[in-house]
Design goal:
Blueprint: E1 3-7, E2 28-29, E3 32-33, H1 34-44, E4 49-54, H2 59-64, H3 69-75, H4 85-93, E5 95-100, H5 107-113, H6 115-118, E6 123-126, E7 130-134, H7 139-150, E8 153-159, E9 169-175, E10 180-188, E11 199-207, H8 210-216, H9 228-237, E12 241-245, E13 248-252, H10 256-268
Parallel strand pairs: 1-4, 1-6, 4-5, 8-12
Antiparallel strand pairs: 2-3, 6-11, 7-13, 8-11, 9-10, 9-11, 10-12
Bound molecules: uridine 5'-triphosphate (UTP).
């Protein structure tokens, strides 16, 4: 059974001051924090061992995935009790482990920091600020099926407007069928004129464990950060990355605009 890694060490500067003293992953869409949507998606994909790469000021995440005795005692037997059902279900079914990234050296470094929790096995990665509503099932569950077929790293992708490619890792390669691309090139946040396509990687990955050794050998790239994209490019050179056009919808809740769109979507459905 695959484990799922959640890198949650980032500062969330785009949501200041809300994220000054609380993790951005705890911001709620309606009554549920972003991170809980992510863990629910992992569980739906059969990933019960949840690993977090946290950082300073992220302790609320650990408390969220634990029992709160006084509170639960207080609302026990009242109409409010049911509101804790979803989180209690996760706590009962999953295990949670944590390690800290001491310096914010980028997503690649955060994933390498998680090696101690993952070990030598293929694993899922969810960036909780990309909130996905997969159809017919969760995006990570769809990706597990892709992995089972191709047995290499898998990245979830979607077409984005051409003038937004500089916000994403962009991939290009050989179209295998309508949903799968054998990745040949990956570029992190290219200028629109340099982008090899409009196919953007979103915050869902399945990574084979050789990624750890590659990350160790990857020099810091853009912004002095170790880029996961650069490590994936090394795998892609050997034909070992498949980009998967998922079915469903994704909200970029790392931006205020996407956060509002997600809130409206969940409120109206
Ligand atoms: P982002 O690029 O969204 O950065 O990171 P951020 O710091 O979270 O948010 P802004 O841009 O300042 O508003 C993408 C993902 O990688 C994690 C983040 O927690 C987020 O899930 N990350 C990033 C780390 O865990 N460590 C890092 O050093 C960098």
């Amino acid at each position: 059974m695959m484990k799922c890694l959640f890198p949650v060490a980032g500062y969330g500067t785009r949501f200041l001051p809300a994220t000054k003293a609380q993790p951005k992953e705890m911001l709620p869409i309606l009554t549920k924090p972003l991170i809980q949507y992510g863990v629910e998606e992992a569980l739906e994909a059969g990933m019960k061992n949840i690993a977090f790469v946290t950082g300073r000021g992220k302790r609320a995440i650990e408390d969220h995935f634990d029992i709160t005795y006084e509170l639960e005692d207080q609302i026990s037997g009242t109409s409010k009790e049911g509101q804790l059902d979803s989180i209690r279900g996760l706590i009962d079914q999953c295990t949670f482990s944590y390690t800290r990234q001491n310096h914010m050296r980028g997503l690649g470094d955060a994933i390498l920091t998680g090696e101690t929790l993952i070990g030598n096995q293929t694993f899922g990665v969810i960036l909780a600020d990309d909130l996905c509503v997969g159809k017919p099932d969760g995006v990570m569950a769809q990706m597990v099926r892709v992995y089972e077929k191709y047995r290499c790293s898998v990245v979830a992708v979607e077409e984005v407007p051409h003038d937004e490619v500089d916000r994403y890792g962009i991939v290009s390669g050989a179209e295998m069928d309508a949903r799968h691309v054998r990745v040949e090139r990956m570029v992190e946040k290219p200028a629109p004129q340099d982008a090899p396509s409009d196919l953007a990687v979103i915050g869902r990955y399945i990574l084979t464990p050789d990624i750890f050794d590659i990350l160790r050998d990857t020099a810091p790239g853009r912004n002095g950060e170790v880029q996961l994209t650069d490590a994936l490019q090394t795998q892609a050179k050997n034909g070992k990355v498949v980009a998967y056009r998922f079915t469903g919808q994704r909200f970029d809740c790392g931006s205020v605009e996407g956060f509002v769109a997600a809130t409206n979507y969940f409120f109206n459905r």
